[in-house]
Fold:
Amino acid sequence: MSSDASSDSGRVLRKEDARLLRGRGKYVDNIHLDRMVHGVFIRSQKAHARIIGIDASAALDAGAFLVLTGNDLPFADKPWVTRYWHEAIRNGLPGFLARDRVRYVGEPVAFLVASDRYVAEDLAELVQIDFEPLPAFGTTKAAMALGAPRLHDGWIDNVAAVFGQAYGDAEGAMAHAAHRVARQFSFARQTPLAMEGRGIVAQFDSDRNDLTVWMSTQAHYNVRQNLASILDIPEYHVRVIADDVGGGFGAKSRCYPEEIVVSHAARLLQRPVKWIEDRFENLQATTHSRAIDVALELGCDAEGSLVALKADIVTDVGGYIHNSGIMTSEIVPAHISNGYKIPNFKVDVRCVGTNKTPIATYRGAGQPEAAFPMECLMEVLAKEVGLDAIALRQRNLVAPADLPYRTGVKLAGLPVDLESGDFPKLLQLAVSSSRYTESVDILPSGLREAWGLACGIEAGGLVNFESALVRIDMTGNVLVLSGMTTQGQGQPTTYAQVCAETLGVSLDRVQVRLGDTQLMPFGRGAFASRGAIFGANAVYLATLALREKTLQKAGILLQCEPSELTIVNGVVAREDGAETALDLGQIARMVMPGGALFEGEGALEAQHVYKSDQPLTYGFSVHVAKVRLDPKTGFFSIQDYLVAHDVGRSLNPMIVEGQVVGGAVDGIGGALFSELMYDEHGQLLTGSLADYLVATAPEVPRIRLAHMETRPQTNPLGVRGVGEAGVIPAAPAIANALARAIDSRRIGHEIPLFTLPLKPERVYNAIVAASRSERAP
Amino acid sequence: MKPAAFEFFMPHTVDEAVALLASLGDDARPIAGGQSLVPAMNLRLATPSALVDITRIPELVGWRQIGDHIHIGAATTQANLMGDTELRTKLPLLAAALPNIGHVQTRSRGTIGGSLAHADPSAEIGLVAAALEASVVLRSSRGQRRLAIKEFQLGGLMTAIEPGELLIEIILPVASSGVRCSFRELARRHGDFALVAVAAQKSQQRLNVAVGGLEETPRLCRMLIEKFTAANFAAEAFDTAIASELEGVDPLSDVHAGGDYRRHLAAVLLKECLLEVTQ
Structure:
């Protein structure tokens, strides 16, 4: 593979777009099967209550085919199949349908099936659920209050998990630091909001004991494991198909109760059952994320070198621990030092239960939550020390001379090692590419313009192992099978590019298939920015193995050493460039049963399961934002925005840019608009897209990009993750710009900006705070 | 998110429509663009037994001038009003407000009457109607009545429309020549309901100004108009006039903005609009 981000090499149009842009995508709701029926979940509208009884007789009398409640499920006590699990978790996983108690608004209580969705929703209104209300907690503070009843038996003080990370002597170093700053930060509860909600069509063939499900998921093999284990069906009888998936962003990276229940209903009814999550349910019942409060303290010496970091983190995990565990709470302490060298470190984490929807991962998964407090507090510290904000960062960033740099913290049991990159140079690139300045422009209208900046490290990969198989058919076409899924990140194109270039065939001869558990014995799926780091490396290594095998066969046929041969455009060529008459199709026919070179293989193919000794590959990005603020109202707009990033080798620069720009739009929306609000009794106040806001086109400036490329040695292709860099430091870049626009010299006024989202009212409160301190003597 | 079952009727005259509403009973609802009613039905917050679609009634679409007033049919879409250059000169304040309503897509369906009948506290058309002291015409099978806008706008999502009654037109005064208008609103995002909006119009003799989003119904700023007119529209009178107008207000508060902040925004926007129409 040869490509670099600055060139146009690899910049090819996506193979999948012709189909998707013509509306020919095959999403779950596009699946229509003979005799298919439609289900609706009946969800708790109480935040916390005991279930006294459920009476479905009226609905059944009126024509419901089936009403399932928690007590109807023979597998109700079966455990979830989880992958990695933090040992500090004090249990509290959800059931499949609530049996005795509900703990959040939106929790599934019953599942009703009828002839169509309209009828199902009509009949759902006839199901009587008798609730006895229990005291509900809308905040972590209320949940932790003395004497508050426990949400789950093991949740002492309603704390679902408590753990920490530490090295050095943070207390001692902080006490002796020349400068200390501390602030409280709050990252709002948000939801990934994929365009396609969750959904499933389940079909059960009772004669064969076969379960086939079409699903909107990122992790089809994990779903298969859960379906097989919980429903007690041999794994080879379970097929999970995730064809086109309209976005996942972390929320579809594990199995949900609904998927188990719908599959069970299909088995009971012996008819295909479809359930499509609507937006109302999506906001209530798809896992939420963020919802993290961080009390952060930094100390540095007289020159501005950091000496200590202390943090106290409280995550609002909701009413249950989702079966993906507490990943975001683990990532915040692992990443909060954010590329800076900090010799003394202590972070304590409490995951606190409340009567809200369980949380899980969302694009960036803890990394935006870590970058926000750290990058905002670095600005405060710079003012405190009297350095400019860039100088303070440059002084403390891990430099190339420090590499490989062992941070001293761990993530999912793995050491967090920064092994490659040039963080100071990337920061410099961001500054020089963006026209960033630390001065404030006051326009004749009174509007104020200022720049803000923030850095962020991104971990890509994380979950080890991914599989690929590459096969050459009789006509020389190449099929790539992958254990991954795609939610639109361009894997079908990127993997074809990797294969085509590595093997020596033209791109249009390569087709990629993924998102179906029947394709490969094993796979993981698309999450943690692992599509290139794991998926593409698996394709690369499988293709290398296939190329070696093909040339070895060609050597036999051409009576020469394989090392004297290469493949150009699907035809074997001599080293000196002279073509031979031998093409890949011919070799494939020779290898197949009946061919002269048959040696017991069904096809000319090779497969590889890629494993890494260091599954975490770190990248770095810098966001630079220019805001225009109306100090009379607190309303502001983003005038300019630049993301400088190092993605390592860029397999398809156009796809990389799309990922980064999309991430930045998501990050800007999360910084400015998105918040799931609850009242103190656990009722969701932002239950529709009129109230849960995301960025739309008019609010987003053109995102400019600045590329730098260093190659990580953690994986053969030298790629980094790219799906999350666009989102991670968005909020602190904008908050820092606003704090500067309001008052570029003093500190204190910025405190309202440390609660996301950056609503105009909060910005106005910061303006008021600044004018008060101005008036103060 | 599927509506409960309902009957659907598509009359071609107002008489037919009101006869249908009378015979179908209290649970029937007229529907025009459906931009508020359909989402409410999908969430089953509204479960009308029948819908009477009024968009195919020619009498309810378009506008005509009678004397120095413009009568706009209730089922005229916001997009059609926005694209009408002749109307723009006659009702410049309405023209200034229209681009702030939702998005191209919603304005293509949404109607002037639908917005007035839905009566969202932040809605732009209701605000313009309040500022210009418009009238509305309601008809039922029992007859027709004309109401001043302040008798029509009763509260958040509440109007004087009785069961069986249909809003058929809104009547707005033609702007005199040389009139100056200002419409400003602050919303979280482009096209969202405004946190606060202000509509102001000033002719030689007369100032009209109202603020929306602040209370359940748009507030016609009578005290401000009185004080400011008495001060002969002198800029020095702005602040006290605005302060006295907003003094007794008990502002709305929701997930997007608190009451005190809304009141502050109202003061800022009022001043900007007054500056624009008087300076």
Observations:
- The radius of gyration of chain A is 27 Å.
